[in-house]
Amino acid sequence: MFILNCFSEYHVRLLEQSIISHLKPEINDINTSVSYTFGSINIETYNPKIWSNSHFIYVYDKEGKLYNKYSSINKAKIALGLTEFEIHWHRNRENHFLLCPNPNLELRIVDETLKSISTSAPLSSFQKLIPITGINLDEIPYGLIYVYLDDKETLYEIFNSSSEFASAHNINPWQAYRYINLERAIPIKKGVLSVFLCSNPAYRKNIIDSQDKKNWPVVSIDTLNNNLIRYHENPNAARLKLSALEGVTDIKLSRNFTQDYITGPKRKGEKTKPSKFRKRFKLLWLKDYTFSGPDSDN
Question: Which terminal residue of the chain, N or C, has fewer Cβ atoms less than 10 Å from its own Cβ?
Fold first, then answer.
């Protein structure tokens, strides 16, 4: 343990000595040789690799003033009281504000890494991506998930499922399986590595078809509020959030919520159109949501 601690402290001490050498060189006795090679670091251009994949989040109030800035999505979600998916859904939207629970303010979220602004659609959505190229998916054995580094040549890991990959790297299972076989690298190891998830095309189709729908993300369209779009992590989260907007807090369990309001109930063997939840909200799966938005049915 002592040796491991020494390894972990070396880089920190190296950077510390580099800063001292740049700002206060007189602190160090230049006549005394030391083990730190801080002279080789240019502190003005120093940029740790781990920062290169970070998403710097800037948050603005309704007057356009900077409320705060965060060095990562993780730090932003903790400070604002949001989930990672809420930040992904609401970031970089023109004139779009989100009520953030912790400061209890409506704020606009800007991800400076993306360098672009959208009028309505969430950026980096899987629906904007194209199928992955440069990897022969048909050669991957059915039932396995191959994890390739972003060079698309190095096989980094093999898993039995995307959920197993997600658990190993502490990310949301939905984030893992929705990017399988798409041109979207997933950052792991705190952003140090980026990998592609790949599987046999037939296996991917089976994964999507058999995925438990209680964990599927949902989009709601508020037909009484200019077709305002809201994102929800799953059907139950949508039910609770939208009920709260209507002032309903005593919410009873609904066995047929998904069928009644998202997929549509079957009557006489035929699927019918789903109802609006509380006669106000149209619900659909995120995977079925198109950026132009479905036709409003007022």
Answer: N
What is the count of structural domains for the chain? 4
In the predicted model, is pLDDT for residue 140 greater than 70? yes
CA 99 to the chain's CA centroid = 18
* DSSP string over 37-71: -GGG--TTT---GGGTT---EEEE-TTS-EEEEES
**What residues make up the domain containing 167?**
129-210
What dihedral angle (degrees, nearest 10) is formed by the CA atoms of 223, 225, 227, 230? -100
C-beta atoms surrounding 176 within 10 Å: 23
Residues 36 and 17: beta-carbon distance below 8 Å: yes
pLDDT at residue 297 is higher than 50: no
The C-alpha atoms of residue 123 and residue 75 are separated, in whole angstroms, by 19
Same domain, 202 and 151: yes
Q: What is the pLDDT of residue 280?
A: 92
